[in-house]
């Protein structure tokens, strides 16, 4: 079974960096929360149970720099900021789908 | 886009534990290395560039306890120990496939 993983197994391959970002503890959950649609900061913090302000900010900054998340700030009082997946971000979230389904499906069997 | 992630977003859901194991930095790489077939300890260390003895041992122990990896020790001198994916482990590795392909395909574009 080839998983097209040739790149990821060599430590200096850039795909390792992408993999680290996508599979970071909170990265997986932020992407899957945004897969449902645009969310504000407060909504994101509620969706991703247990994430701190600091980790949410760092995770969003990484994904913005990676081109996976779009941040839209509206010039309003109080300020309104919304986060959404870019096309590339949606592709990443879809690539995560099978893994999330495996985790949910087999959780009892594995952790039980 | 629903990613069947209802479970994973709540912090006390067992699927989060499974997700943490699968998406740990070395977990992803050990599973993808074993997706090619049975490997000995030394072969695994060479395949997964950069992994320490300690992390390889801890990762394999976790996956054995999860029922994803099978360890076979042969009563020989010198001792021979082989690691392979169980059926559940192969399913987990397949679920990782799209994520690995995304990382390899978009590495230059994201990290570039």
TrEMBL record, chains A, B:
Pfam family, one: HxlR
SUPFAM superfamilies (alphabetical): Winged helix' DNA-binding domain
The organism's place on the tree of life at top rank: Bacteria
Span of domain HTH hxlR-type: 13-111
Stored PROSITE patterns: HTH_HXLR
One annotated GO molecular function: DNA binding
InterPro entries found in the cross-reference section: HTH_HxlR, WH-like_DNA-bd_sf, WH_DNA-bd_sf
Keywords on record: DNA-binding, Transcription, Transcription regulation
Cited PANTHER family: HTH-TYPE TRANSCRIPTIONAL REGULATOR YODB, TRANSCRIPTIONAL REGULATOR, MARR FAMILY
Protein name: Transcriptional regulator
Organism name: Nocardioides flavescens
Source lineage: Bacteria, Bacillati, Actinomycetota, Actinomycetes, Propionibacteriales
């Amino acid at each position: 079974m080839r998983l097209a993983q040739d790149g990821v197994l060599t430590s200096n391959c850039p795909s390792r960096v992408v993999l680290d970002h996508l599979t970071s503890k909170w990265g997986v959950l932020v992407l899957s929360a945004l897969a449902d649609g645009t969310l504000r900061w407060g909504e994101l913090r509620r969706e991703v149970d247990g994430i701190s302000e600091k980790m949410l900010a760092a995770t969003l900054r990484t994904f913005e720099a990676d081109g996976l998340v779009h941040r839209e700030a509206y010039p309003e009082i109080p300020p309104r900021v919304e986060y959404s997946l870019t096309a590339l971000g949606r592709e990443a979230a879809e690539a995560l789908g099978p893994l999330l389904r495996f985790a949910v499906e087999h959780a009892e069997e594995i952790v039980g």
